């Protein structure tokens, strides 16, 4: 798993999953990326779109723990 332990990946997933639903929503992803991109809304939305396109295997608009693990494997 890309050199990271399962525990490290789960902690990262949980940091993105702000509401604790077990899935990372588009809004949660954008909010996390806004911090990374210092409030650049367009950049955050663009990167979130790209991440969802690559990681959201079932196309439900959210990233589950299984999808997250698979994307980082």
From TrEMBL:
GO terms for molecular function: calcium ion binding. Keywords: Calcium, Metal-binding, Repeat. This is EF-hand domain-containing protein. It comes from Paralvinella palmiformis. CDD domains: EFh. SUPFAM superfamilies: EF-hand. Residues 4-39, 43-73 form the EF-hand domain. InterPro entries: EF-hand-dom_pair, EF_Hand_1_Ca_BS, EF_hand_dom. Pfam families: EF-hand_7. PROSITE patterns: EF_HAND_1 (PS00018), EF_HAND_2 (PS50222).
């Amino acid at each position: 798993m890309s050199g990271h332990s399962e525990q490290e990946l789960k902690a990262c997933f949980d940091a993105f999953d702000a509401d604790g639903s077990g899935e990372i929503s588009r809004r949660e992803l954008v909010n996390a990326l806004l911090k990374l991109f210092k409030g650049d809304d367009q950049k955050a939305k663009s990167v979130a779109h790209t991440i969802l396109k690559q990681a959201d295997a079932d196309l439900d608009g959210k990233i589950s723990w299984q999808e997250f693990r698979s994307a980082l494997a």
